[in-house]
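Today's session is about reading a structure prediction critically. Students often jump straight to the picture, but the first step is always the sequence itself: look for stretches that repeat, for charged clusters, for runs of hydrophobic residues. Only then move on to the predicted structure, which in these notes is written as discrete structure tokens rather than atom positions. Here is the chain we will use throughout the hour.
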Amino acid sequence: MQRMIALTILLIPGFLAALGIKWMRDTLFGILHAPLPSLWLQFLCGFLLFALGLGFIGGFILHRDQKRNKVQPRFQKKQKNDPSS
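Below is the predicted structure for this chain, in token form.
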């Protein structure tokens, strides 16, 4: 059940990023979609959707790999010094 929830959480930003790519592509071909009033705004919204979707998925993968210690040393979280030890 938890894997299905995680998959759903990853699919939503993936679909938004794909929609962003579609809006940017349609702007280059001069196709304007109904909710947006101008081509430049459509391109800007598409770029934002793409960047946010890609950033969310990238952050999710980085967080997962950091927990499993499968990242390069520069991406590892800094550990605080524990004075009690």
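Discussion point for the tutorial: The mean pLDDT is 91.
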